[in-house]
Amino acid sequence: MISKHVIGMALACGLVALAAPEAQAQSGWSVCRDVECLDQGWNDAQRRWWYTTTQGSRLLPLSWMRALEQPGDGDGAIRAFLDRAYMDELGYIANPDPVHNPEGLPLGWVVDQDKTLSADLMCDTFPETCDALTMREPWVGLTCSACHTNEITHQGRRLRVEGAPTLADFQRMEEDLLQALKDTVADRDRFDRFARGVLGADQSIDGRESLELQLNEQIVWQQALADKNAAPKVRYGHARLDAQGHILNKVALTIRHPNQITNVLADAPASYPHIWNTSQQDQLQWNGIAPRMARIRLLGENTELGALVRNTSEVIGVFAHLETDKSKVLRGYPSSARVRELVSLERQLESLQSPRWPEDMLGAIDWDLAAQGREVFTRKIDGESCADCHSHMAPGDTSSKMEISMTPLTELGTDVFTTCNTFLHRSKSGNFGGQLVDTKFTRIDRDEDYTRLMLVNATVGTIRGKLFEVLAAILGKDDRPSGIRTESSLVTEYLPGVSDAKKKADAEECLTQEHPLLAYKARSLNGIWATAPYLHNGSVPTLYDLLLPARMRNVATALDAELPEDAATRPEVFGVGSREFDPVKVGFVSELDQNPFTFRARGEDGEPIPGNFNAGHDYGTAGLSEEDRRALVEYLKTL
């Protein structure tokens, strides 16, 4: 148990105490004033608190974000980066809360400030920024709700869904932000406007020179992140992000090894997972990389250690400042992560209920057809049914254990790279070399090892650095490959049609090894209607399309039979980014002319794009009748 003395030290060192949502001041303004809110177990104060509570993410100083302009397009127009229309274009939701969001930031973009010495982080990377005390100013970062809140529209009405995957284009936001910083330095008129906005009446020659040096420090750092996260052959677009790739690459950069390697690109974008019922699952993330662990009393609240590890690793990947090169995991790593807030946010998330189909907005459910769909859902096809992997859970149930099924890549047949890239990612060890990873005394190799092991080291060190306590029972298992390989005499080609030899070799390595990470998770499908696009990589636009067979496959075998040319199959090109809902197919409208981004499973030359395969989860879909598909879709609305 954490002593009162330790808690007092933590608060004294800059951890901000939180008021419960119910205790926050009320202004009369309601989240649900301009948008319809589903009943998911949260009241208005809880929603507002969830949208605006910092995790310690630090993207740019607030004064910079206010003054920054969008990248120039040559027309001479001056457009603020935080312009509401531009944020809408990027897919970030407005949050016009006058009390908790006076800056008018998008929903989930929050202000973080630490005025103490502990704010002066990464001063080797940002020396001028530290010297100017800019680290102690308010910064803007992202919190959980930026990526896990969504709105749908239908026939002129708007509906807020808490915990649903965002439709934001995170990749473009990062690219535009970096370009905007570069444009600010390159264009002296733009820099002059920026300096006036940031410095105001305190402008001076020295102050402007310092500001320009700080801008260049950010450009160098963000360019390094962009280079590590490069994905030249695949665009994420709206509703997808290679989050695990970004987190692993951020850890690799914090190691600051002069010869750091880049052996795996961040080219496996995944759909943002929906996050209701997270506390009821034994394994989280698409590949189950985040296991559930012991629940303890921490900072005055019950918290599950696995959730704390998962959320800390997330904020590391999403702009937290972190120093891992000057200390060891046992002493803790200095960081901007807000452990107390992470605990409280997870605690509130435990009460979030899955969304129920709103019949008054999206149309009445055909309950007789849904009953037929349940029969199809439980029907055995080749000895298996949908219900074997996807257990039933009532929409309002926030306490029962959720049954989780992990299906090996070899059985699922879906795109391999969300899990394969995480499995194969390696980095130079640097300061991590020789350090322990977990309580089973697994050590990181001194020269080079799997980056996922270093992520555990960085995450545990971040938690220890904030709480001054050694947390036991952290990931008590060795995540190294088992060395067991399987062979199939039927396989004729891995990633058929792909010309990239490395990708084909990576796929073969991941499809011929047995390891817990080389699998994808199946969970209860409650609220699944509100989570399009589908499959782990967002490669299928609607539930109806998911029930069609795919022409693509990860592995070609001698027994493969081609689908007829006229067979209905999953679309390989469709639009993403519109909030307009299709209640018939269940998903967002996917016509190209109604969406800002085009998803392509194949390049324009017809070659399949690794990371965008829409194969897998094909359990007898070709044999379903049109009536069966429609009935299944109707049943899934009821979950």
UniProtKB/TrEMBL annotation:
Coiled-coil region list:
none
Q: What is this protein called?
A: Cytochrome c domain-containing protein
Instruction: Tell me if Heme is a UniProt keyword of this record.
Output: yes
GO MF term list: cytochrome-c peroxidase activity; electron transfer activity; heme binding; metal ion binding
Keywords for the protein's UniProt record, in alphabetical order: Heme, Iron, Metal-binding, Signal
Q: Does the keyword Signal apply?
A: yes
Signal peptide limits: 1-19
**Residue span, Cytochrome c domain:** 368-639
